[in-house]
Write a structure and sequence with these properties.
nine-stranded mixed sheet; six-stranded mixed sheet; FAD/NAD(P)-binding domain; 2 domains; 9 helices
Length: 413
């Protein structure tokens, strides 16, 4: 590709990350030809998808920049409260100072929110609507291939270095194909779209199950509930309540898959157990929706790029939900890729640079979530105590706590 040849870009996957990438590229690369592929039909209603997403402040700001932020559908996160049931070795300390806990507040970081909680549908539907509006204004360079199941990406020896086979049209060639179509850990090992040998992904099965659904607080919306995200480290694994509107919260409850204490409980029993495991300051729960189970593990590509193909979001890494940062890492992948393409017309140079540009943010988040997830499987004496001491220390060290808050909001910069 030379300076006079417009970039021809394929985006595979119209989830939050793929749509954000396509929209950002449409705005930042005014001469580029962009084609968005997704297997779902265009007329499929995505707005009603209830899956809960935790957005960092950086992701919120990107949605605002793209014109796809809908504050009426979001619950801002004003505070994150992380705690652990005090291990026996910390009994004397917890009697005097309370249970190990870390509190991060937006007001302390001089921001209006740490992030926000939204349903998957309320993130994707506005992004898709704005993409369709943007495409209608530039039909000569922006294209949609909904209902197109991309089955293969093939390297070709030509200026357009990658072929996309979508099954609904003739094979098309592009300068760059971005795979933003990911999934959960159980599907991360599916066959690759790109033929040829690549370094195998890092994979580790944590032997944990995440039970996911919606919880309702007793009394509807008790004082202090709105805007606080609660995470609790238990002996089985982490449990989290992500604030939603109207006195509800998204529930993520991680437990040992081999000795699952949740599987055989009915809804009433699950509520009773949850009310015993969260920190005393957490409002009591009145009900939970039927819960869905997902296997948890790490799947991380060793390299983001392969020829003229690059992977971002869950296509590049599937993380444990202990930090709630998987989507946000993908949004940062998308933003940085487009910013690099806007600055440099040489696609190969951009992809070479992208590897080391994204490495600090990407591998720091992978390492942090992997360490925390594995710590719940350790049988070493004192592992829980070490986590508790860490929470006490972080709460006392304001500069370190602020650095963690900035990492949560914006990633490594």
């Amino acid at each position: 590709m030379n300076e006079s040849t417009p970039l021809k870009l394929a985006v595979i996957g119209a989830g939050p990350v793929g749509l954000a990438l396509a929209l950002h590229a449409a705005n930042a690369l005014p001469d580029a030809e962009i084609t968005l592929f997704d297997a779902r039909p265009l007329d499929k209603d995505v707005a009603g998808d209830p899956r809960t997403l935790a957005l960092s402040l950086g992701s919120v700001q990107l949605l605002q920049r793209l014109g796809a932020w809908r504050p009426e559908s979001a619950q801002p996160i004003a505070e994150v409260h992380v705690s652990q049931d005090a291990p026996s070795l910390l009994g004397a300390v917890s009697w005097r100072f309370g249970e190990p806990a870390l509190t991060i507040r937006a007001i302390d970081e001089a921001v209006t929110m740490l992030g926000a909680v939204m349903s998957y549908g309320h993130v994707v539907a506005p992004l898709q609507a704005v993409w369709r509006e943007t495409q209608a204004r530039a039909p000569q360079r922006l294209f949609s291939r909904f209902g197109a199941n991309v089955t293969a990406l093939k390297k070709v020896d030509s200026p357009r270095g990658v072929e996309v086979d979508s099954g609904i049209a003739e094979t098309e060639r592009f300068d760059l194909a971005v795979v933003a179509e990911g999934g959960v850990f159980a599907t991360a090992a599916k066959s690759d779209l790109v033929a040829g040998a690549r370094p195998p992904a890092l994979r580790h099965d944590y032997g944990q199950t995440a039970w996911v659904g919606i919880a309702t607080f007793a009394g509807g919306d008790p004082a202090g509930t709105g805007g606080v995200a609660y995470e609790r480290f238990t002996r089985h694994g982490p449990a989290a309540l992500l604030p939603l509107r109207d006195g509800r919260a998204g529930l993520v409850w991680c437990v040992n898959s081999r000795d699952d204490p949740v599987k055989d409980l009915d809804d009433a029993q699950r509520v009773a157990v949850l009310n015993t495991i969260f920190h005393p300051r957490t409002p009591r729960l009145a009900a939970v929706s039927p819960l869905k189970a997902f296997s948890l593990g790490l799947s991380a590509e060793r390299t983001l790029t392969d020829g003229r193909t690059v992977r971002i979001g869950n296509a590049a890494q599937t993380l444990h939900p202990v930090a709630g940062q998987g989507l946000n890492l993908g949004m940062r992948d998308a933003f940085e890729l487009v910013r690099s393409l806007a600055r440099q017309r040489d696609v190969d140079a951009v992809l070479r640079r992208l590897e080391w540009q994204r490495a600090p943010d990407r591998w720091a988040m992978i390492a942090a979530t992997d360490f925390l997830a594995r710590s719940f499987t350790w049988v070493l004496p004192g592992a829980a105590t070490a986590r508790g001491v860490g929470l006490f220390a972080l709460q006392a060290l304001a500069p370190v706590k602020s650095a963690i808050a900035r990492q949560m909001m914006f990633g490594s910069r």
